[in-house]
Batch of 3 targets.
Target 1
Amino acid sequence: MKKLLFISLAAVLIAGCSKYIDEPDNSTLTTEMLFNSSRDLDNLLYGAYGAIANNATLAGNWRVFPELLADQVTVNVAEPSTADPYTKLYDRILSEAEYADNYQQAYMALQSANTAIYAIENNLITKAKDPEFSDSTRNRILGEAYFIRGLVHFELVRYYGHQYGYHSTDANSGIVLKIKPMLNVKGIADIENVKRATVEEVYQQVIRDFKDAESLMPPVPLRRGRATNKAAAAYLARVYFQMNDLPNALIQINKVIGSTPGFIDPEFKLVRSPATGNLTTAQTVANVSAAFKSSGTSLKVSENIFDLVGVAAYPVNGVMNRKYYRTTAVNPQLAISNAYMTEAAFANNDARKTGLITTANGKNYSKKYDQALMNIPVIRSAELLLDRAEIFALQGNTADATKDVNLVRDRAIPLYNMNTVITPANILAEVRRERIRELGCEGDRLHQLRRIQLNIGPGDRPAVSPLPWNSNKLLFKIPEAEIRATRGAIVQNPD
């Protein structure tokens, strides 16, 4: 009978292993004790979802990191801590911004997802053992586990590895790729051979996982906050777009929002009320704010393809509130940079300026996270629409790119003319500027600059030179405890 230590790779490594390995045998659980029904597997997935909805990962830091390193925010209040040395991150001194907790939570999610996959593949749960374990339940659990595994590996490799295509096959260029749970960990020898995969290997595994997730998951989630086949398709579109594999990105985008330029299938339509006709200023503000106004298990906002659900007992927006939420009594840690406002060049009546940005004491602040309790949108249909517009622009298809851009603008600008013409000479720049306006403070900026191989500008940092898109200074450092525990098998990122 196999014994399974239900702990993550990171938890083992950060603790130097002895905390777990030296415990008596009652610290382990047999697989029979762990798995009696499909509900046990769902509990594993709850743990995995909890790890990605953590402030250290997708609900917080992974949404903040790309903004802090790029050029569209500035430090407003400096109060760094050991767990959150964000001022060092802003200064681009990543050797002093380790963020061990984000690494640990990520591998805890992987351990839970891999354990669920292992249990199903090894028939630890069967219909004979649990009559509720139907084929549809089996497929859903497998699909959700693949989704979480693909998501975590993808997000990690974007922080600990270079942009795809730059030395992607070099040894140790990626992350520790975990596609099996940790079983029978008895000593340091069981983990010291852990090594980093290449960026190429990680991306190929991510693609496989999202494809499997898309094929297995249902279109309707088990409950709010759980992933669906369309969430997997959308995330795979994001992966392909990051890789600059534009033909495959377009295929995935069209699966989610439909293939008609200037239109989104009703399931994930942009919020626009009223649905037709001219909009007032108040209506445009309500439209662009809707994605950031939901909380708890209330009805999902249509344009939020996948979001992280927060309830009073388990809020998910703590980091985002502290970073961005300004009140008369509390100053947020981050402000929007002047560089962002210049590059966005909003029209004066654009609701993304009048409704999602507030000005006080000469500074600009984001209002996207100004709810005491809120769900965090992870991927919105507006992102896919702008991805598609950029693909069309790069293909020389100005007419269809313009239709998609106009759809984004129409719900944000009062009395906007949907027949606005953008010239072929300007279309790519207009699409990319629209992306800045729409996705500001949502964790997109650094990834976009690296993808299109543009220098990472200084923003409002005084006397700071731009960083090349492929600079080693943009690579996060793997926690030193991980490296020590594996006796150097895991190689640190270069300075």
Target 2
Amino acid sequence: MDNESVTSESPKQISPVINSGFDIEMVGTDGWSFRLLHSLAITCLGLSIFSALYVIIASTMDRGLRRFFTWTKSDRFVFYMACTEIVVDTTHLLDHSQIFITQDHVRPEMLCEAYGFIMNSLVMTQILTVNIIAITVFHIIYLHKDIEYGSSDWKMFLWIFGMPLTSSVVFAATGQFGTNGTFCLFDAVQGRIGNLIVAVPMILILIANTTLYGLTWCRVRIESRALEASLGPTVNASARSHRVARNMFLFLIVYFIQWWPASILSILILFPNPPVYMIHLVTTFCNIGGILNAVVYFVIRRRRNPPSGKQNAKA
């Protein structure tokens, strides 16, 4: 009887050991969402790269690179964002393309980790650049103080590149990079700490930027109304500063449009089975940075060269 009871028992299924994100299934491989997700991401990235290239070429032809650091702050920021966007989008395009073709994680694993290193470094660079813009506008408008970044903007570069690169080196040394089941960034299993560490600053910077821009915009409105009441509607002694605020306010709008899904998903991904629709939103909005940056470029250029032919004060 004992032997029969032993032999009649069904063999226990051994669950696969999951040591990293490479041991889990790709998101959407069991349905149509896989091809939609990655084909949409590839399309957005291609358009974003084209837009960023256009901004770089048009800016260079318009103003020339020899006197680059005499460009307005707004123009330099647009140029910096376009340059980082090309590297980020090209890396991400290779990532999504390989996944789309092979219908598997990016392999070898070291290549995926390299993609994650580049992505984290330059995405954080872009986020910190928008933060620098918010601080700059706040100083100019609210505190009535100009802010300088040192010769060749070295102080700004130290902040926007130093922090991300340092954190990426630490993350790489602790094995945080890998696949999250959709693309290469933080590993779905081993990279939870790194994902949380990055998620918190993203949300805090969004709140800080919104606060700084809100205070700045209120000051602009108050000063404009006061000047109009005392000097008349056609006189505005603060036109230059207010134009700076309006131009740089565009970067906050772009930041919010591009990164709000990623900010939410970075929290949801810490829990089991994050909503698939949020992943689709991330792979769409986060991959159109070059397009949004091009919109900012055209708006700033139009304000600088209005159709009436009147030249506004330069930002």
Target 3
Amino acid sequence: MTIHSQALAYLIWRHAEPRAWDCTVSEIAEAIGSHPIAVGRVCGAKGWSNRLRTSEMDRFAHLCHVRWAA
């Protein structure tokens, strides 16, 4: 992970941990001022994705990312 990704991981953890990870990628992104795709990537890299609630918007963003990455 890059230094930027590590810093973003800390911000994600700082927001989600006190809430027992009861939040979505979109909620975290809005709270920390980041893009949901960046938050989703970092959560995936850290193995945190299964801790978070999902939303329709998060599923849509993931599908768009997968389609564009192919």
